[in-house]
């Protein structure tokens, strides 16, 4: 009974530890956040900004003090370029007492980027890599006196220019294209590569303390990181999970002898999993340690835990099952705690809690007659990866970890049925919160290391800091079940092979650098710190075939191997016949403009001024021409730039065109799962860093473009796909990502409609058996021949498709609608005059409710049309600018029924707005066709 009581008390205490430890920090070792009352100033003292808090950046501080306007408005990306070219100083006062602690360390978790660190008159050291944690021993300075803690920042722009001098081998590309309005040589410094500008983002060469600064007090050892390697074994005919726990201990900055005990527990939502302690026996719960830390004060230990398979649930990707997560608790206790009576024994104890998931992820590259497959197998189930590419949520690093905005974006991905995001290599190693949310939502992460689109140096200092960067970040992130695969860089293999940056004359030298950096440095460092996952050398790449070709494939974009990036800006993207795909398409997409009401200047700018601003923010070297060309292919293009509606109409058409292109391409990839072995579709890109033309589906701030609304159908687990293939047959494919039942019978109805009539002119029916987690061909129908026999013109018609579940057990006569879709039979601009009708569209507010608890307004709308309406586009007027993250449940839809219901949800702080019908504008393609 006493043992049971002790165990119960232990569980309660552990639950409290877990609840207090949501941010995965050490508990028993004292820790002080130095987040308040910093002063920021330039080195000349012209600008002095007091009372700043951390995390912080110079741009943010200058904005808040109104020295500069918002970096994201008008032309401030250029107007504020002086900020990144100036040196700055961060300072605060620090008083500390070492007391009885053996170690007192000042730890900077993120300094952006080049700084000299001083405490009083002593220089503690320098920083040079924004991705690295820096620690300094300050015990002898913690005597109760107040000293100034000062960081003197050097301009990253100036530092990059200095490093570019006297290079034996040109570092290419030297500078970004002029249309980026960017800075040069970012590849020479270990900083977010996109901070010097990208084709979707502005230059913001940030400086600051972008992560926490902490004083760490302890007297024995600190648990810095925990890693896991989880596998499956059979022991005495019993199936078990094995958990190899890696514990990284720190003892200051120098070697010392350790003698103590590590304790391990696995918990489920604060309760020991299912029945009692889910470990094989009690001997596995502890590990005695008698060892020496290395010269840096670090010690790595491994310990194996085993669990019965039936004691825990598996973690699954979104759409395939639940995301079961368990807390792994590890405690370090120095032998001295029990050996003698200590005045402060807690300083010799360290605890850490992380969340883990029991799953297997394998990157399969099975041989095929024509190449190799490339797909992810999760818990022995092949997964078709559906998702997008993630760039930092803000161009300013200190804002990129905004918990609420990151949560909003990840929920938007989850709700669009995504099961994978690719963290792109020109951004950041994301926040702990990002990975925890991905774990909770079942979003697998393809994780690039932070190298992108350039050739990098390989001098000894550069490789040294890169190695430390990779080591620290892989250890921090590794335990998350959402991490599926690592790739050492983005597009550098294909850039070298295809001579993107004129490297051909020095190919041998650049090849040697490539191998030195990725093959000999980054790859082994990742593997040493994560034995649980595959590491790819690049993206795109040919996977295993690239290794056989000595790390640079002959064609890194070979569709028969690995992953591919596919962009085509001048062939008709609405035409499904042009898409062949590959084994795994990890980038593809098309640009559009953000909504007219999203441009803060739109209300005060005329057309000419807005055109100038949009052109300034269009960083693609091709400018707006691909957007305009794709509209010309398929739609009536507004031509009178003086008309007040020019930009609202063009923006609408650009978003419709983007949605159609990504829809068509994605659906071809999903339909070709068996025929071409395509098992992944990650479009470029999910989010944005400012209001500008880009490939994103979600605008900066959270407004969904039409594409993101459509993705709920495009990525739906049960979907009906229809497109005109290369033989001019209407190809209809049923898709199921669901795992049960093993097979379903679907009834598919294809209705041929005239554009001007609600009533179909013809119907065609098919049935198909659709296997679980696969696709089934419904039909390849000669719809054009069928129309010709009936004397009907394709330009006047489209096909609406509906799939119903054929359930013989269902007693009702109303079949269950599974999915619906449409197929255009000709370009919309070719619709003949008699079918060009102008609908009267009426919006009625049926109900509106706002919850003061979560500040969420939900409005039910009825959209009524007098005749069929093409691609109905709903938008709130600019007067509702206080409403945030407003989303329509449907938008850009075909309405071939008189009435349709649409839900609108917005974040409405204080529930102050009352949305009425007049607050919503409507556009349709019809109104452009009838002109």
UniProtKB/TrEMBL annotation:
Its main location: other. Residues 730-830 form the Mannosidase Ig/CBM-like domain. It comes from the Eukaryota. It holds the Pfam family Mannosidase_ig. Residues 1-26 form the signal peptide. Residues 38-211 form the Beta-mannosidase-like galactose-binding domain. It is found in: Lysosome. One of its GO terms (biological process) is glycoprotein catabolic process. Keywords: Glycoprotein, Glycosidase, Hydrolase, Lysosome, Signal. It catalyses: Hydrolysis of terminal, non-reducing beta-D-mannose residues in beta-D-mannosides. Pathway: Glycan metabolism; N-glycan degradation. InterPro entries: Beta-gal/glucu_dom_sf, Beta-mannosidase-like_N2, Beta-mannosidase_GH2, Galactose-bd-like_sf, GH, Ig-like_fold, Mannosidase_ig. GO terms for molecular function: beta-mannosidase activity. Its EC number is 3.2.1.25. GO terms for cellular component: lysosome. The keyword Zinc does not apply. Belongs to the glycosyl hydrolase 2 family. This is beta-mannosidase. It comes from Anopheles minimus.
